[in-house]
Amino acid sequence: MRVGLGRRSTLRINRAVLIALAAITLAGCASGRALQEGRLAERQRDYDRAVVLYRRAVQERPNDRSAQLALERAMLRAAQQHYAAGRALARQSRWEEALAEYQIAYELNPTMGDIERELAETREAVRTRLESRGDGETELEALIERTRHTGPPGLELPNGGPMPDEVVFREASARTVFSAIGQFAGVTIVFDPQFVDEPVTADLRGVTFTAAIETIANSTRNFFQVTAPGTVTIVPDTPAKRREYQQEVVRTFYLSNADVNETIDLLRLVLDVRRIAPVTATNAVSVMDTPERLEAAARLVQAIDKARAEVVIEVQLLEVDRQTIRDYGLEFAAQGADAALATDAEGFGLTVDDISRLSGSDLFVSNPMSLLVNMLADDSNTRILANPSLRTSDGLAAEAHFGERVPVPVSTFVPIAAGGVAQQPITSFNYENIGVNIEILPRIHHNDEVSLELVVEISNISGTGFGDLPQFGSREITTTLRLRDGETNILAGLIRDDERETLDGIPGLSRVPVLGRLFGRTRTESQETDIILTLRPHIIRVLDLDEQDVLPFRVSSGGAAAVVGSSLPLPGRLDPQPRDPVERLGGPPPVIQEPVTPPDPPVNR
Fold first, then answer.
1. CA separation for the pair 560, 248 (Å, rounded)
2. Domain tally for the chain?
3. 78 or 508: whose pLDDT is higher?
4. Alpha carbon distance 274, 268 (integer Å)
């Protein structure tokens, strides 16, 4: 009977050994299959696929030296392939596609040739092309630009040339001055029946028709209105006359980038536009107001309807053994504290002893911190948790979630009958995100710097609690950084301590207090890991501003919107006494009491 039991036990052991050997064989076959497929892809010059397959083989068999060498070889060849493709695209001025190829080549082999210089030149070419305006615009953009500052047909202020250099009025009739200005510009001047004549002194030499008529109108407390093509009416500036002569025009502004509701609020608050409505189907706003206010609205819409700046943020999240970090020389803050390192080529130095030990086999790179991070990523004790490239616009958050959602039961109690005691349990489930959650809110500055509001959370199931409910562990970073374009930043200090205690010995006796130490063995294992987060922003689109967008402008009650500080004289500028004629013309100018050739008497309408 004892022999039978021994045979059955031996059979069970042999069966378990066979199952284990089969599992090991299958695992070896799987990794060997990945290695074979990688070699096939490499022979077919599909180096990107070869890199993926070799990485899979290295992950399955981290101690296989042949797989590691094959991965390094495939990464070098893939980098050369993408570098050559980038140069070919750059020769065709396809800068965005060339930039993408160069970035892939740099990720595969950061030390290859002039890859950093090519990256910098290509980014500058992309930025220059984005900042330039003109040939690349669509027909719709050209149409909107042509009509942006065009007034209603037939009611725009006539374009008159500059006044003659001999035009100086001294104590002349305002009616005569208006008529003379209109005659010089070829414009018919009409006076309102309630127009009041008064003497005017003005020096109008060399000014334009628009500036001259605005100057005289403001100084005599009048305003002018274009009432017909080529006809301007001079009207006393009173609220009643303003309402009588007020003209209203309807215009629709088609927005390409700005938000409709924000645009409506801006026009209402800044220009006091009352009759305005959104057109959500075409992302437009329709406005009804005076021509002067509509022109000012056009200037505002032009200034705000700009595409947001965009940035690509390279994120790499590593989980690494603390001892490995110390071996590579990355010493961060004290244990338990967060640390942030902003690194570039200028922030890394060599001592004299280091230089004396350099040889021809040593490698010199311009960004050593990036190299150290890459070395960590290739280490077998390092696990890459996430490596996304997030593209987002200025002021818009980019989010990335890696992991799974775990259901957590939540019980609530309700009464069985109305008005009863809440004793009937109802179970529902809340889903918790487990894994890596990254949220980045960028703000792009005008000096090629980027501010990043960063929230990184790493969560896992740390164990089970009461009723086998899961317990969650979490590590979180919340910070704000400001980096230059292309600058690498490293965050570290999220330390995790894992301690495991294993008890081996005779069942039952090993758990007896005091005596258990004689019949068992306790083994304690502790592991300390750290989280390293690297960020590198690349600005790929800048805010497209021109000089007209930043210059201030005013809204005149009698004329159109004008730019403050332009070469045109401001309306209302009136010289009470003529300037010194000796300094201006070298002799006394003619003083006109009445026009030299007076026009026909105007007819009041």
1. 14
2. 4
3. 78
4. 6
Gap between the Cα atoms of 575 and 239, Å rounded: 27
Q: Name the phi and psi angles at 570, rounded to 5.
A: -75, 145
* Domain that residue 444 falls in: 314-335+366-414+422-541
Q: Are 71 and 185 members of one domain?
A: no
Pairing of strands 231-236, 188-191: parallel
pTM above 0.85, yes or no: no
Q: What is the pLDDT of residues 144-174, one digit of tens each?
A: 777 766 666 556 666 666 777 777 888 889 9
Q: Is residue 357 part of a domain?
A: no
Query: Tokens representing 488?
Result: 């690498």
Element at 3 (helix H, strand E): helix 2-43
CB 539 within 8 A of CB 443: no
Contacts of 345 (CB under 8 A, 6+ apart): 366, 367, 368
Nearest one of 134, 146, 217 to 175, comparing CA atoms: 217
Residues 240 and 267 grouped into a single domain: no
- Do 86 and 118 form a contact (C-beta atoms < 8 A)? yes
Which token pair is 25? 């064989």
pLDDT tens sequence across 270-319: 988 889 999 988 889 999 988 888 888 988 998 889 889 999 999 888 87
